[in-house]
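DM between two lab members

TW: hey, do you still have the LALA0S07e03510g1_1 entry open?
JB: yeah, one sec
JB: this one, 255 aa:
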Amino acid sequence: MSRILTKYGNLLENGKFVSRYGFKGDPSKIEISTELIKSMTLDRYSRYLNFYNCFVLLRPRDSRFHLRHKNLLWRSFCRDTSSLYDKESTLQSVQNPTSAPSPVFFEKPPKMALLNELLGCELNDNGKDCFCFFQNLDSLHSTAAFRQYLERTKSSKSVTDFEPVAVAINMDDHSSPAISYIQPLLEDSAQIYSDLNYEKLLRIAKHSQTKSSDPMRKEVKRILEAFAENGFLIPRMAKRGRWLLLTAESPAVNR
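TW: and the structure you got?
JB:
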């Protein structure tokens, strides 16, 4: 079977077709139009944007790695990051038996032009490929695991690691307790989206402290601090829904 059919076979369900109708042709001879592939990819990305309320774009700290090496490093990164969510779910299992699902990692860098088209904005202005994972901030332990990931990323000095260059949050997800706290804090200032800076973001996080013992509010405060520490200081609102894009200042990577 051709590589294209192997990649898109599940979407086309060609395996069911073969088993049901006894197709005797050579599958490698089947051609799939560029327009169909684009349509399927857009549909896939759209479903992720509808189902998840957060995604992260990342790239290797050292851009000199060959693509094959980047893919191997990416798989290792996915395993390590997933372990944070597994660990946090275990810690929270007594209070909440529902485990937070691990993020959904894209095997390869997504087509940025198609994501840009869906969101109505430019996610990556330097033209370089970015790796990506989606997740839901829908529980205390998924939010805590995301915060731990951001903190670990900031403290990591390994050139084989991946660093986040953008975080996107769907501010229109009213069912998420984490976002219900984040939204009013960021909208506290009418100019917050146009003049966000390190000090202001830390100040907002500090002002979020109350006498409330709500653990989610504390996690949101720590996430805002992690945003500031990772340099996510360039905010934009996408045209699609109410996706807030926080872009990191250009990191100094090895060329």
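TW: got it. The two ends are 38 Å apart (CA to CA). The chain has nine helices and six strands.
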